[in-house]
Design brief:
Length: about 375
């Protein structure tokens, strides 16, 4: 709770809101202590909790009055009547089910005043609104208690099981490893549709993602929203830059989910990848000295003297330079840094700020498929 308080204060000092996901599906006994927990969150200054289970909603509303409640996407809200039902129970925002189309979103907006939060980027669950039991069955990790092992993304062999006299044998193996894994969602091209159809909040799925991924993606969508609100022409002018920027992070292939059509086999992950991210996250800035133009960075991947890198930060700031005057944590000059999380110092040609990220166009190991469908790990 002390760390949570620190995070809330940090966010509020920067005019950001702080939410806590409490969207587990409760079994008997899981709700014990929830009332006190919600009250403590409220007293820490939390802006809202995101909940899906009606039991926890009731406990929060009755035992922690004043704490705002948002409905999780796992509650599968797909129509305005559902929005109105939750409004009567005091909820102020509903996170749409990811299965909602753009036309349905527009109709919901016309018929309710409840705030709409909608997914625009990130992992798509193979199961309806994230309610899956594959992980429970295959790894004894409950997807609806926050423990999903993403069993759908594992590789599976497909077999033809014959009948009659040969039914005990297995033959006809298909030479490709299939999965039930969906591509990721990306709506960066369609921010105008999201805004014009009345979405109040854009949701980026960032669970188990790196700080590099989260910072890059949120930077892109913030730039897209700001540009479109300034003028549609401004948005169109930077749209391709935003798309290119998104491909600098490690992710799956991208599609628009259910917004414009039902997903097909083209929105599933099997066979050869059609596009591969080319950049690697190598460091983050922890301190800088404008007088000496030196920066202290925390290493996240191997860094070499002379590497070409890109710095980026909030407000869509970017510049490209080379690693120069690399020193280790003891101040000794080095040609190569390969100890994760070590503090290093380098020269920078322009001012950088704590929290800025550093990435390089570098090779790395990646999982691909050969033409016959077999998986292979290569250095890309």
């Amino acid at each position: 709770m002390e760390e949570l308080k620190e995070g809330i204060d940090y966010a509020h000092a920067r005019d950001a809101k702080f939410y806590v996901a409490a969207n587990m599906v409760t079994h008997e006994g899981n709700e014990e202590g929830a009332g006190a927990w919600f009250r403590e969150l409220r007293d820490l200054g939390l802006d809202a909790v995101i909940v899906s289970d009606p039991a926890l909603i009731m406990i929060c509303a009755t035992e922690a009055p004043g704490l705002e409640i948002h409905l999780s996407t796992q509650a599968s809200s797909t129509n305005y009547e559902t929005f109105e039902f939750w409004k009567q129970l005091g909820l102020t925002r509903v996170v749409l089910a990811r299965e909602v189309t753009m036309a349905e979103l527009a109709e919901i907006r016309k018929r309710t005043s409840v705030e709409i939060e909608a997914f625009v980027h990130g992992a798509m669950c193979i199961s309806y609104s994230g309610r899956c039991v594959l992980s429970n069955h295959m790894s004894n990790r409950d997807a609806n208690l926050g423990g999903c092992s993403q069993s759908c993304r594992w590789k599976y062999n497909l077999y033809d099981l014959p009948f009659g006299e040969e039914r005990r044998s297995i033959k006809g193996e298909v030479p490709e490893e299939f999965s039930m894994s969906a591509v990721d969602m990306c709506m960066i091209d369609h921010i105008p549709d999201m805004i014009e159809n009345g979405v109040d909040s854009l949701k980026i799925e960032g669970r188990m993602k790196s700080v590099h991924y989260v910072s890059t993606v949120t930077n892109c969508y913030k730039a897209a929203v700001d540009a479109y609100l300034e003028s549609p022409a401004k948005f169109e002018a930077i749209k391709q830059d935003l798309i290119d920027e998104l491909w600098k992070v490690a992710q799956r292939e991208l599609a628009t989910g259910f917004y414009y059509q039902a997903p097909t086999e083209n929105e599933q992950l099997f066979g050869a990848r059609r596009k591969i991210p080319q950049y690697k996250f190598i460091a983050e800035v922890v301190d800088s000295d404008k007088a000496t133009m030196k920066a202290t960075i925390r290493q996240r991947n191997v860094i070499n003297e002379g590497d070409q890198v890109e710095f980026y930060g909030s407000g869509f700031r970017h510049f490209v330079t080379n690693i120069q005057d690399l020193h280790d944590s003891e101040g000794m000059p080095i040609d190569r840094a390969n100890r994760p999380m070590e503090l290093l110092t380098i020269n920078v040609p322009q001012e950088v700020f704590p929290g800025d990220m550093v990435r390089a166009c570098k090779s790395g190991l990646i999982n691909l498929y050969k033409e016959d469908g077999q998986a292979v790990t290569v250095r890309a």
